[in-house]
Specification:
This protein has 2 domains: 174 residues, Rossmann fold (3-Layer(aba) Sandwich), CATH 3.40.50.1950; 215 residues, CoaB-like (Rossmann fold, 3-Layer(aba) Sandwich), CATH 3.40.50. It starts with 8 loop residues before the first strand and ends with a helix. It is α/β, with parallel strands linked by helices. Helix 1 runs parallel beside helix 2 and helix 3 packs across helix 5. The radius of gyration is 25 Å and the shape is elongated. The model has no long low-confidence stretch (mean pLDDT 93). Strand 16, helix 12 and strand 17 form a beta-alpha-beta unit. It has an 8-stranded mixed beta sheet with strand order 12-11-8-13-16-17-18-19, sandwiched between helices. Bound molecules: ligand PMT. The site of ligand PMT has 29 residues, from helix 9, helix 11 and strand 16.
């Protein structure tokens, strides 16, 4: 698996809400997660967005009128329904929700929703009074009872100018809800501890030593693990990137703090993923106040910090799985293998950080997964979200192998 929705066909139904134009943004966000999006518009939906916009965006044909060629439609709605892993209706008007609840099939998207076997996701968008009307609420309840996922609308300014509940949920949140719904759940019940970002080592009252880590890789690992069902705690150095959804976040500043917080939580985790770029050295003393400017050179003595991952490796108990990242500028594989052995890791992600466009402070990564059993998996350049999924695929598979070997030993 690459991106969470890679290789997955999703039907996006855009209905006659004022927010129909936001359907394009929902399509884009689903595509960002790797989905193959097939959009369909109701006739009312075409009042706000054209089929051509959606066709250009998704690269797939867009169906509007199911009666334009009944022969073809007959085939299309069934074949698409078979391929679709989910039907997402966003925005869903009050009329659309009523039709879905009743099982009417007078437009392509409703007919397809009836023929589809995958889950239905409904993101309502309408006037607040229409949303709170008992008829709409009963229809939503009926859909929920049938297993549909309702992505709740937000409170905000509505098309009428009034402020109330009824604004389409953030398209990114809709896509994330779809990804979560379809996630394999193969880390359910697993406790994952992630270190992420840089650390900052103070020199004086206003200056510090740090590095170019943004926290994006660690956060992508944490978000992906949470999506797959894990209980995730992230110990993160100072970063400005958005927090990973569904994770417990512990913010720290220095390598010393990160060591303390990570080591305290390590005994209760099943998988440790050390993606942080921890300072290897810290100033031996922090000067009081701000160091004054002057002509004389200044010497700063640095002393080594404690290695969080190595210390966890030494304390590792049977059943715990350790993933390290090796940021290398030369002899990538040899150096990464050395770290794998020295820190008692099960898997190391070898990152060539001399390569432009990947690694530190980029949205993309590339590298190799080196496993303790000697296997080597090359990962081409891809988005960090996709990279994280590939690392987790390897973790899930290797843990299964380890578990089997452990059970075999116990029965011998
Ligand atoms: O944060 P981003 O901008 O997204 O960038 C991602 C990244 C390049 C920082 C990330 O992919 C990465 O490679 N992280 C590891 C960086 C690093 O410090 O590598 P290292 O080879 O120096 O350390 C090896 C391993 O030991 C790492 O897992 C590191 O977290 C861990 N370590 C190192 C030193 C230390 N004192 N404690 C540690 O736990």
């Amino acid at each position: 698996m690459s991106e969470p929705l890679a290789g997955k066909t999703i039907v996006l139904g855009i209905t006659g809400s004022i927010a129909a134009y936001k359907g394009a943004e929902v399509a884009r966000r689903l595509m960002d997660l790797g989905a193959d999006v097939h959009a369909t518009l109701t006739r009312a939906g075409t009042e706000s967005i054209t089929p051509r916009t959606l066709r250009t965006l998704t690269g797939n044909p867009v169906t509007v009128d199911m009666f334009e060629d009944p022969g073809e439609w007959e085939v299309k709605h069934v074949s698409l329904a078979e391929r679709a892993v989910a039907v997402v209706v966003a925005p869903a008007s009050a009329d659309a929700i009523a039709k879905l609840a009743l099982g009417l099939a007078d437009e392509f998207v409703y007919a397809l929703a009836l023929a589809a076997t995958g889950p239905l996701v409904v993101a309502p968008a309408m006037n607040d009074k229409m949303l709170s009307h008992p008829a709409t609420q009963e229809n939503l309840e009926r859909l929920r009872a049938r297993g549909a996922l309702i992505v709740e609308p937000e409170v905000g300014r509505l098309a009428s100018g009034a402020v109330g509940k009824g604004r389409l949920a953030d398209p990114e949140a809709i896509a994330a809800a779809v990804a979560e719904l379809l996630a394999p759940g193969d880390l359910a019940g697993v406790r994952v501890l992630v270190t992420a970002g840089p650390t900052q080592e103070p020199l004086d009252a206003v200056r510090f030593l740090s590095n170019r880590s943004s926290g994006k890789m660690g956060y992508a690992m944490a978000a992906a693990a949470a999506r797959r069902g894990a209980a995730v705690t992230v110990v993160a150095g100072p970063t400005a990137v958005p927090e990973p959804a569904g994770c417990k976040l512990v913010r720290v500043e220095t390598a010393r703090d990160m060591h303390r917080h990570a080591l305290r939580r390590f005994p209760r985790c099943d998988v440790l993923i050390a993606a942080a770029a921890v300072a290897d050295y810290t100033p031996a003393r922090v000067r009081e106040g701000k160091l004054k400017s002057g002509d004389e050179s200044v010497t700063v003595t640095l002393r080594p910090t404690k290695d969080i991952l190595a210390d966890c490796g030494e304390r590792k108990k049977e059943g715990q799985f350790l993933v390290g990242f090796a940021a290398e500028t030369d002899d990538l594989l040899a150096n990464a293998r050395r770290k794998l052995a020295a820190k008692h890791l099960d898997l190391v992600v070898a990152n060539d950080v001399s390569r432009p466009g990947v690694g530190f402070d980029s949205d993309r990564n590339a590298g190799y997964l080196l496993l303790a059993d000697g296997r080597e998996i090359a990962l081409p350049e891809m988005a960090k979200s996709a990279f994280a999924e590939r690392v987790l695929d390897a973790v899930v598979e290797a843990r299964k192998g380890k578990g089997k070997r452990r059970r075999k030993r116990q029965t011998l």
